[in-house]
């Protein structure tokens, strides 16, 4: 049985434009909160394949999306490379000993050795392949090397990125050494997710907007493209989605290239511009402003405008970033049903 989401990634004919939402398995769902409470905390949930599989499937049953995205976290990678990860209430993810020098990088596990430690992720994928309906796709994912490196250098989320950007301008060789090491782990991690059963993989560059457009290729995009090349060399038929958030200027200057299938468009990038620049080469995913979900009327307006722009060709509906925790579930259901209504062929 074909999967509508995979077909859309490969620009095949579909009965309507498929839809899923970033962060669709999460805090806006009471059912998710119940499972998370049972797990004890967020990291325990990531490490428990049965519970991680359960929350991965919830949005398919409750909201009606066309693809499940693996429930995990981008920071399991540096954690298994040897950095101690904690999620502190009110503060988010914290690494107590961030990377400061070459010795810190050398002390980390690399390549397949680090990727091999992420067994709980692969077990979750295997469970999901048994449990998911045949027509629903499973998306595996990773953080982009730059996004992972920012956490590893800053030790936590940041609004200024001053430590990693100080390194970018004053010691670029050191930053490239971190990015290179992370890239090698990510390559193996993606392949192992695919071998466990992921139908599609997405590379999230959540902090792409922290880099000035003229430096973006050097410090992020080229590493993402290298990962995509590595995946395509082994699994040419597995669709790859790239999602760099906040790179409108980079798109506009013609910076996007590479061997991948789908480009995730953030809500700050006009869909018409993305279509003009990228639509012939890549399927586009996105890009409703997530806060529109607070209003069913505004959701419908936006879905109709996106449909008018894309005409149901080379497109996957999604938000332009993640769904927020206080969005009413009925509004998420409305978004999904409206996407299907306006694009039904």
Summarize the structure in words:
Its EC number is 4.1.1.37. Its main location: cytoplasm. Pathway: Porphyrin-containing compound metabolism; protoporphyrin-IX biosynthesis; coproporphyrinogen-III from 5-aminolevulinate: step 4/4. It is an enzyme of class 4 (lyase). This is Uroporphyrinogen decarboxylase. Strand 7 (262-264), helix 14 (271-278) and strand 8 (283-285) form a beta-alpha-beta unit. This protein has a 7-stranded parallel beta sheet with strand order 1-4-5-6-7-8-9. A two-stranded antiparallel ribbon has the order 2-3. It has 16 helices and 9 strands. With 345 residues, the chain is an alpha/beta fold. The mean pLDDT is 97. It has a single domain (4-343), classed as TIM Barrel, CATH 3.20.20.210. Helix 4 (49-62) crosses helix 8 (119-131) and helix 11 runs parallel beside helix 12 (213-234). The protein is 50% helix and 11% strand. It starts with a helix and ends with a helix. The chain has helices at residues 4-9, 30-39, 42-47, 49-62, 76-81, 102-106, 111-115, 119-131, 145-154, 162-170, 172-196, 213-234, 248-252, 271-278, 296-310, 329-343, and strands at 67-69, 85-88, 92-95, 137-143, 200-205, 240-244, 262-264, 283-285, 315-316.
